[in-house]
Design goal:
Length: 236
Amino acid sequence: MTKLAKEETAGKESALHALFHGLDTSSLCDSRKTLRVMSPQIRPLQPGTKILGVARTVSVLDDFLTVIKALHEAQAGEVLVIDGRGGERALLGELFSAEARRKGLAGIIVDGACRDSESIRAMGYPVFSRHVTPMAGTCNQLFGTQVSITCGGIAVEPGDIVFGDDDGVIVLSQSELDEIIDGARKLQSVEARILESLKRGTPLLDMTNAEEHLEAISAGKQSKLSFRVDDRTAFS
């Protein structure tokens, strides 16, 4: 990669992190209930881990040769998203994670297994997986990279934006992100104000329309639970 290309990549990565600064997956999901969310079984090896970057996709089955190929081709700021079809043979471990970190990849997500979990946690590198096992897969079959995959039960395309934290992993296209990012920021700001009111002793239900909502639902009417801040409806 040329110096100019490296600078452009670093600039895009920095802009993406600035865009997501202070946000969490829950706020984004509250902005749109139809976002792609991976199975809750895809978990970070280390609690407190966050992952954010552009998807570089891999499709394999119990064989990690294609993961080696993808690591070689991957660029800084990308997230390696591996469709391991839920397999229980490890597709990566300490060495692949260390190489990904060396290259500046934002992390690895595998719908399958990894190993060397203690070492990966010790290096502080973001790895999310479905299984942990000591048994490695084979290394003699080539599958696909930069193809449409399914990971954690959802579709992932090369170039999608991947964002994960302790609550889970979401995947968004650029257009989806553009549509919800402002709403997510507003929601998170409102939640912070509600938390401050709770600390001051205001009951949570006093900041909702819970009574009216329960009454309407009991009467078979359409209604939405809404939260109020400063006597105004903040979100529902």
